[in-house]
Amino acid sequence: MRRLPLILLIALLGTTAASAQTTRYDVRGTVVDSAGVGIRGATVVALTKPDSVISKFDVSAADGSFTLRRVPAGEYVLQVTFVGFQTIRRDLTVAGVVDVGAITLNEEVSELGELVVSSDHIPFVVKKDTLEFNANAFAVRPNAVVEDLLKQLPGVEVGDDGSIKAQGETVTKILVDGKDFFGNDPTIATKNLPAAAVDKVQVFDKKSDMAEFTGVRDGEEVKTINLQLKPGARVGHFGNVTAGFGGADAESEVGRYDVQGTVNRFSSSTQFSLIANINNVNRQGFSFGDFIGFMGGGGGSGFAGGRGGAGMPQIGTNINDGFSETLAIGLNSSHDWGRKAFIRGSYFLNSIDNNQDRTSLQQQMLGSNLSSRVDGITAQNSGNLAHRLNLNGRYAFADGHDVTLRGGFSISQSDLTNTGSRTTLAATGMTQNTSQTFYATDGNQSSGDAQLTWRKRLNEKGRAVVGEVRFDLNDSDTDADLSTRTGLYQPGDVVTYEEIVQEQRNLGNTLTQSQRLSLTEPLGGGRLLEANVERRSVNEDQDRSVSDLVGGVPVPNDLLSSGLDRTYTYYRAGARYRRNAEVISYGLGVQLQRSQLDGRLLDAPTEISNGYTNLLPSADLNWEFGQGRSLNLRYNTSTREPSMNELQPFADNSDPLNVYVGNPELTPEFRHTVGAHFMLFDQFTMTNLFTFLNFSYTTDKITRSRTVDDQLRQSVTSINAGNDYSLNGNIDYGMLLRPIGARLNLSNQVMYSRGVEFINDEENRTNILRNTVEMRLENRDKELFDVRGGTRLSFNNVNYSLNERLNQKYVNPTVFGEGTVYLGEWMFSSSLNYRMYDKDVFGSSRNVALLEATISRNLMAQRAEIQLTGRDLLNQNTGINFSNNSNSISEDRVVSLGRYVMLKFVYRLSGIGSRGGRSEAIEVRHMG
């Protein structure tokens, strides 16, 4: 194995040397029209045989002449294109200086828009505010799903939980051929649709129904990916059925199984999809937002950096960790009645059972001369059953006059049992406190939302009026049993214990309503003026009842029981001006917002009443300064109101080590956000550069104030304190390495934040800098083998102004690689992901190497496949998470699914998904 890198290096040097010795010659000629007049600006390209890669290119001069300089000797296809003329292709042999003479172009019947070169090797095209990837240019393994394809796209990140980020923003919607697919859960499409069915992947900011109609941005864009299917998938059926069974993994005696199926039946007017899976290999074909919502978004005790009380231990919400059993069934359907109407609907059921054994280490900064180390162990069992229904329909009364209804409804039942213990040590190593906690919950949640949009054009010039009504209802009911035993250590080895045994019940209800009206007036020359008014109200009711168990008898605890009614209402009136043009488009807007916050504490005379007036400006600019080059700038302002928990002035000491007290005097935050996106792609050199930079500045920031006593017990409340800001950005650069037939991608992602917190009335400013550098290299010709690999370095720097001795700098490197070899109907593949963790943080090295291997063979003319797969062959899989916040650095480790071997059988319902040869054709098309 040690000789392998040397062999690869020798091969690389040999290839480079051979390439350097290749003789090169110039190719000359002239491009003329049918009258023999030279054509200026024609594109002349030499394409290599047989893979149609662009070797050299030139643009013809005023007299039509061109020169392709230093073309390596060999066989080529000479291709000449110009807008409005037919494309010419002819064979070209370069063995010396070549003069091809005059090349005559004949006129096309019609002339369309911009010229775009397209082939399997042209990976993406920048079209105004849309970045379009050619799926054929990014090879994935047979039977790969869309998620595997997205992981190969520059500027797109896929998290371990399936969440997607594109150009630095979270993708919240996936469309299939422009149509909704299972509502607002983007992972259902990415985890279930086959990558082989996708022709193009389009990334863009989807505007609201109102903005799409008026042409004026309203700040409600959501990052969206549209999956354009191949022609063979748009009409007909495709899908697959997979059944896999294996032996027990190394950590348990349970046999492994993985059964899934997808059926898609599409036509020009109708889409129908059925998906189902059942497995115990930690694979989820959907997001688990309902699961996390029930857990409070991953909140928990002050130990976890969450609410700071609530009697909850640290809850693990990443169900990719530990051991999970999953059942999911979903139906999605849509139908179009021409241009007059359409309807889309989906139903989804999912069930998850998850077990986790977790160990936690945490370093806390508790003052200028005070710090602690917290060691924790938890065992958690959880389950969730959820139903989700989505509906989206539109009816057009006439051209420019329609109504759209969007709605959804979901219900879920969840339960959780968490048993844990933790020990807090002072900086001297002396134990300060201990706790043992048992926490069990059983709850139900339901939610529903609806949005009705009416749109009408009032005249031929484009004057339009749009009205919109929305509502959102959430209801939750949770019962919990809590038992804690806390030990407080005094000098002289004196220990006192406090015990709590409680029954808790939490009831919550939130109703959100909004009404909005917009009038748009065209001013000519691509200019638009919009006036709008909006009213929005949020009504929240929360009731928390706590009873202490004394001798097994519940006794109401009025000090911990609380309730609050809260109403937040705002009125907005504003105007937006927009100028749309081919090269530069921009918009300016301003809104006047008057908001009112009213709250009433149940069974108490305290009332909260505050009013605020804010001016909310916005601006955006989009500059298309060349083919494949664009710059987008945005500026927005917004407010964030205090939450229910932040406002309640009750002490919640159900976790005696972390007591939380609300603050009814809180005021809303005001946030400024600036974003910049730059995209460049040169289809001739196959070079791309994608960058983004987002900056956020918040005034009147709602932050935490902590009081820490000698036993390191904490009392936490929320306050408005000063300002903070954050910045995140990314640079993604890709280029071809033609001498070795490879593609290189380099990326650098930066995140910086500055936060403020108070500890014992002393201000602490935390500066967190995270810089992730990644390099990926892969071969381009995927016909016989597909090899890719790289490294990722995550640099972390955490600084505390209050206690500089606790500042931390650490690096977490990752090395990854995968390779597949195709030998006729056989395929051999393997992958390695080696994650290294800096031992300077918690004093020991905890590296993890995940090695997988698969042998498969195609059967039945590639309609079927049999696979033998080994997962985690080195038996090192562990869920590890390093995190840092304003006052702590943490490491969590979860025992997870280990080594196992599985035999799978795959049957494809159509030819889509079978591995075939790459197309050698290249075409030039005109795109409007």
The span between the termini is 54 Å
Structural class: mainly beta
Average per-residue pLDDT, rounded, comes to: 83
Number of strands: 50
Helix content: under 10%
Strand content: over 45%
Q: Can you count the helices?
A: 8
> What does the radius of gyration come to?
31 Å
What's the topology here?
Elements: H1 3-21, E1 24-32, E2 43-48, E3 54-59, E4 65-72, E5 74-81, E6 88-94, E7 98-104, E8 114-119, E9 124-127, E10 130-134, H2 146-150, E11 156-158, E12 164-166, E13 169-176, E14 179-180, H3 186-192, E15 198-206, H4 209-214, E16 222-229, H5 231-234, E17 236-246, E18 256-266, E19 270-279, H6 289-294, E20 323-337, E21 341-367, E22 370-398, E23 401-426, E24 431-457, E25 464-490, E26 494-524, E27 527-550, E28 553-556, E29 562-579, E30 584-601, E31 607-626, E32 629-640, H7 644-647, E33 651-652, E34 658-661, E35 669-682, E36 687-699, E37 702-708, E38 714-720, E39 723-737, E40 742-759, E41 762-779, E42 785-800, E43 808-823, E44 826-835, H8 839-842, E45 848-859, E46 864-871, E47 878-884, E48 888-895, E49 900-908, E50 922-927
Parallel strand pairs: 1-7, 13-16, 34-38, 37-40
Antiparallel strand pairs: 1-4, 2-3, 2-5, 5-6, 8-50, 9-10, 10-15, 11-12, 12-13, 13-14, 15-16, 17-18, 17-49, 18-19, 19-20, 20-21, 21-22, 21-48, 22-23, 23-24, 24-25, 25-26, 26-27, 27-28, 27-29, 29-30, 30-31, 31-32, 32-35, 33-34, 35-36, 36-39, 37-38, 39-40, 40-41, 41-42, 42-43, 43-44, 44-45, 45-46, ...
